[in-house]
């Protein structure tokens, strides 16, 4: 090939020298073909051991269960005594430890999901259907109010606020729902709807107070909501003992019973799971739509990300803060309403339990995502339901389950620790990796 000009002449000389040295003609290099994009399976395999949300969550649960197993072994004197002669007969200690831990976690599974023995008994006609569905019923019963309080915390956090007041808002929700349940003489379906709305309004009112104070005076929502938690709890203790509220003929702190027309219907005469879990799923879908599809959701996410920029764009930060806390309070109040209308059926000093504080952990475990919060609440409900059976059959303290819950949250809150322990790769920022890194 001949090319005109000095540059072309030099190129021809170089090609001729190369042909002389190798004995083969030199061809011009062709550009490399673009690489084909990786398929879904390749991305999944690559991200399986990366520090994405799903992997970190699963490994956090595994780590918590392993530490829980060690604590189970340490807490049993009989098993612990076998380690005194471990060097002589290590099999004794290992077998005893395995038997204890496997039995405990098997009871945890049987109490939370299903007992295979109950399924076999139902199949051969020697048992009924209730023991088969009782474990999952208990799990959903414990999970339902946690979904609402978890969504309350998650929604507020997405808007840049830290709602510590879910407990107080849930307590007020139980009060207003219960009072509507035993004071209003209404037909069954209307009575239930009115009681639920009363719980929503009570929680919304309790959420409005820190919201308006934050918007108008800049008062920190954490301090205000913590104080309101104490206020709500003390108000509940005082109210139950008042004439007209306290159950007639009783001297202890318990209110009148909620009318049957205002109680949440259960899924079976012998099961505790009720309509509350259906409402929890609907609330999750509603919060997901609110955050991702509505104009208000866009505003609260913008305010939560950068209040100054949102204000410059014409958004009312004060209005957003107020509406956000009202909505969060309404969700927590609905959680309290499902508690008293679904299982408690009367006001007591501990009617709300710790659903507001547990909602903080549920929201954290769910990465402040609606569907992640739902799954986290079900996990906490399963641990609680399974822990009851584990305590009854194995004799292991229920507090150990609480320790496992706390460990899960600790590892979730410290992903760098999990990444260092398991030597996880950094999550990819494209396609599958990006979706996992963003959360559930």
Which terms would index this structure?
440 residues, mainly alpha, 19 helices, 0% strand, globular, disordered C terminus
- Briefly note the structural class of the backbone: mainly alpha
- Count of DSSP-assigned helices: 19
Unreliable stretches, pLDDT < 50, 5 or more residues? 429-440
- Please tally the β strands and state the result: 0
Helix content: over 70%
Can you give the mean pLDDT?
86
Q: State the major sheet.
A: none
N→C terminal distance = 61 Å
Alpha carbon gyration radius: 30 Å
Order of helices and strands: HHHHHHHHHHHHHHHHHHH
- CA-based shape: globular
> Strand share of the residues?
under 5%
Task: Describe the overall structure.
- The chain has 440 residues and is an all-alpha fold.
- The chain has a domain at 148-376.
- It has 19 helices and no strands.
- α8 crosses α14 (317-344).
- It is globular.
- Mean pLDDT is 86; it is low at 429-440.
In short:
This protein has 440 residues and is mostly helical. 71% of the residues lie in helices and 0% in strands.
Outline the fold blueprint:
Blueprint: H1 6-22, H2 40-48, H3 53-75, H4 77-81, H5 90-112, H6 116-123, H7 130-158, H8 166-183, H9 188-217, H10 221-240, H11 276-293, H12 295-305, H13 307-312, H14 317-344, H15 355-365, H16 370-394, H17 399-413, H18 415-422, H19 431-437
